[in-house]
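Internal QA ticket QA-208
Title: Verify multi-chain structure generation after dependency bump
Assignee: T.L.

Test input:
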Amino acid sequence: MRVTVNGRERDLEPAATVAALLVELGLEGPYALVERNGEPVERDRYGELALEEGDRIVVARPVAGG
Amino acid sequence: MVDDSLVIAGRPFSSRLIIGTGKYPSFEVMRDAVAASGCEIVTVAVRRIDLDEQSEAITEWLPEGVMLLPNTAGCETADEAMRVARLARAGGLPDWIKLEVIPDHRYLLPDGEETLRAAATLVAEGFTVLPYVQPDPVLQKKLEAVGCATVMPLAAPIGTGRGLKLRQTIEIMVEQAEVPVIVDAGLGAPSHAAESMELGADGVLVNTAIGMAGDPVGMARAFRLAVDAGRVARLAGLIDESETARPSSPITGLITT
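Actual output:
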């Protein structure tokens, strides 16, 4: 299954969850923020929300800033 | 001692200094500066993670108990800012948002109309909204009316360090404020922060002046002292200015008469 993560295509297992994607990216910490097809994903749903072919995912986090 | 907490949206803070986390030479220095400042709120930006070159997470370096205040820096429209706020909250950051809508790259001046639009929507969605604005007492009233938790006027453009260039308008905002006024941006020296507090601001937000200082940790401490000094002075009551001199020593009983 192909999805786009931060603008780049990536192969995932079919029906991989958001949580599985974050583990694969090494981002399972407390502050990975996820958007799927332009909609924010609630942290409570990371473990259950299955991604679909063609999904556009943004993964963000807090960084230094004023 | 009388409780003199800064209360934002019902939540008390003993420190009136908010620190930005940008521009420090290292996370280690930032951590120490945050501690030296005594602040209880720090701002952070929200950005896409570079998946090719992952760097350390800033959150590893922030002490427990310091509240993260995500900002919408980089957003040029209300829609962009709302998107960032929603993403931050959904992912587990606080539902407090430092709302910045800045279409102007040269002076980084915020768009009041778009800020108000985003503020109204985000408040309705349950966010605690702290909008960054140009000093504007009329806009202040509109932001209060839609339920903003603070109003944060700039002293001078972001990063300029020029101090209270817009002092008189900020004084009007202080006079008519119904929610805390926090002077945000443009403060370059602790004396600017003290001046802000003396004129009645409820708090100040400082980033560049600390992060870019020769010794950010020392400067963080200096700002902490200045904010405290200015606040205590405000509460103590400053004297009125006088056009002419007023002697401090008795004018009678002079030795020479």
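Spot checks passed. The CA atoms of residues 25 and 59 of chain A lie 10 Å apart.
Status: verified.
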